[in-house]
Design brief:
5-stranded mixed beta sheet; 7 helices; alpha/beta; about 15% strand
């Protein structure tokens, strides 16, 4: 396939977020965690908890992460500072001449918060306007059904033991392991 511009090599970054509800229009992003897909779990990764910038709360979302808005107001990082720290970390782990690519399990959820916060607070998104969704990638590699893309099913297929902690960095690391496993199957089929 010919393109008019040369394709940059990519660096895959697994990202997970916790939020106070289903969309950034009314709910705050509470934490974000990220790690390099192809690094082991001893690499430090990135993690930050954010001060809430919206008041909407879905009780079931708050229970999952164990956060409270009052607690994050007191101990969280201001969103503009947090997003600058995240952008700086992305830049620090992205080799010169490479493009960072966000990877997530149900990336559409995490990406909408990440993109909204980057644009709102920094005026740009280091990931651009796209991400790789592990569920969709799994569908393409395996031909599975949508119902077969649950994290438990995918993890079981590859012999991975994953228990979501809802700590964004821990979950990003688990997602990275899933992506590596699916990618390994894809490479084996080629």
């Amino acid at each position: 396939m010919s393109t008019e511009r040369p394709e940059k090599p990519v660096i895959y970054i697994s990202v997970d977020i916790e939020a106070a509800g289903p969309s950034p229009s009314g709910y705050a992003m509470l934490s974000v965690g990220a790690c390099l897909v192809d690094a082991d779990d001893t690499e430090p990764g990135f993690y930050v908890e954010l001060q809430p910038d919206r008041e909407g709360v879905l009780d079931s979302a708050m229970v999952v992460g164990g956060f409270t808005l009052d607690g994050l107001r007191a101990s969280g990082t201001a969103p503009a500072v947090a997003m600058q720290q995240f952008a700086d970390w992305i830049e620090s782990v992205t080799p010169a001449g490479h493009r960072p690519v966000m990877v997530g399990f149900n990336a559409v959820f995490d990406w909408m918060f990440v993109a909204d916060y980057f644009h709102r607070y920094l005026g740009r998104n280091p990931f651009g306007h796209s991400a790789i969704d592990i569920k969709a990638f799994f569908l393409g590699v395996t031909g599975s059904s949508w119902a077969g893309t649950s994290m438990n099913f995918v993890a079981e297929r590859y012999g991975l033991s994953i228990t979501l902690t809802h700590n964004a960095l821990d979950d990003a690391r688990d997602q990275a392991a899933l992506f590596r496993a699916v990618r390994g199957e894809q490479v084996a089929r080629v």
